[in-house]
Structure formats: structure tokens, C-alpha cells
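Batch job 17 of 40 flagged for manual review because the log was empty.
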Amino acid sequence: MAAWKPDIDLLQARDETEWCLVEENFGGRLLAYAQRRTAGDIQAAEDILQETLLGAVRGIENFNRAYTFEQYMFGIVRNRSIDFMRRRKLRTLMGDDDNEDFPDLDAFIHDDETPSAIVRGVELSERAQGLLGVILKDWVRETWSSGDFQRLTVLEALFSAGWRNRDVWREFGLRDETAVAGIKFRAIKRLQQLAAHRESDGDLLDFLAKAEDGGGRILDLDVSAIWTDYQVACMGREILVQLLGGSLEAKAEEFLGFHLVEVKCESCRANLDDLANGASDVDKLLARLSK
């Protein structure tokens, strides 16, 4: 009998029946592979299987049809197994004592994550991305209005420019890396509050309420990508006119200098090109801001 092959178009359309067939046809072999990688730890293997199914649903839109679906699934389970072994090694190094600074990374894995639950989770994630884009904009405007331009620059450096904590505190004269982490923590808490004001749907609020910082991610939301895609740190043209005219206060100008020179925001640069008398004016402005 020919081996079952999934309909990729149905999977990309998040057809629940097709994803259930994926679990039915691939679950056994993936679980066996995970058990081998975890030295027979069945609970760990089952967790890895659920993470693999979740990853498959989330990544299916970018599926490369040059490969087989089996290669796709085994690539994911291999990566999830490696992640598990790394977490296990970390726990071994840290010891078993409870430590609130290092939450259990498996706490977000649930035994009841069936393909249908995974599909609903992806839909929730997409809705949460839209909400996060809106409240990031709210946070930027609020912080701009309060005049806390250093906080704005720190978050732009972390989320958009991809700087590390140690680079940020040295560049901006903060006390140490803990100060950077504190700024990030308070920003996330404020985002949660802004979400509560904007969103009455409990499932989205629960999603963001569990937010943990993780290298530019909040759960499975890539804050760096959302920061860029939603142009959250881009100021209106009236602000850029003031920048060109030299009438902005120094701290605001420093933030926009970082945004234009270090982040190299293409949309803001395009606006400047349109607003300026010529390219030479923009070049002179960027040269001044980079000093």
C-alpha cells in the first residue's frame, strides 16, 4: 500500500482534518525518534512530539516543496530534541532548586495540544501579533510624549537593531546590564497594561499576560519583526520637518539620529528625501546626526 502523503495546500489552509491525519500518520515515528534522542524518557518524548506538531503548523506556509513532508517533519523533531537536551543540560548545571529568575521552560507545553488546538493557537498568535503592533505604537507615542527618549532608544536598540544588553548599557551610559533588563521588563509590563485597555477578548490578554522576555521575543511573537513591520518607532512627517529644520529638542534628535543612522529606517529616510530640498540636505542631516 502506498504511503500516505498530506495535501500541502490543505495544510497551509490549516485544514483541521488534514492536520489530524498528519498526527495519525507521523506521530508514531516522530515519537519513536524523540524517545531515542531522550534515552527513552517517554514524557519528554511526548512533549517534543507536541512541540514538533506546533512547529509544523507554524512553519507550513514556508514549506519548501523541493523536500518531502517527512524530511520537513523530521527536521523539526530533530531541532526540538536538540532544544530539549540543551534545556536539560541547563537545568543540570543550575541544580534543581526553585529559582524564579529561571522559569521552567516546559511550562508552556500542554499535553492536550492536538492539531486542532495547535491551529487555534496559531490563529491566536496572529491576532496577538496585530495587537502587539498596535500597543507597541501606543507605547512609543506615550514614551515620546513623556520625553523619555533614552528609554525609546534602548528599546529600539534591543528590538530593532538587535543589540545585546551589554552593548546597550555601555553605549548609553547605563549602570550595568541589570539596568537594561529593568527597562525591558517595565516596558513589557506597560505593554500588558496597554493591551488590557485596547482588548476585551480574554484569550488575547491571557496570551500577552504570560509574556516573558527572550532575546527579542514575547512567547512566540518576534518583537523585532513586528517593531519593523508596523513601523512603531517611525515619527510622523511633521516631526521629520522639525528635524530637518533643526527645531527638535536635543534628546528627541538623538533618538531620531539612532533611528535613522544606526537602524537605517528606510521609510523615514524615504520621507526625508521627499521632504528635503535635495539629497545633499539629507546627507548633511545624517552626517550631523551621526556625530
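Reviewer: the log was empty due to a logging misconfiguration, but the result itself is present. The chain has three domains: 8-96, 118-229, 237-289. Unflagging and moving on to job 18.
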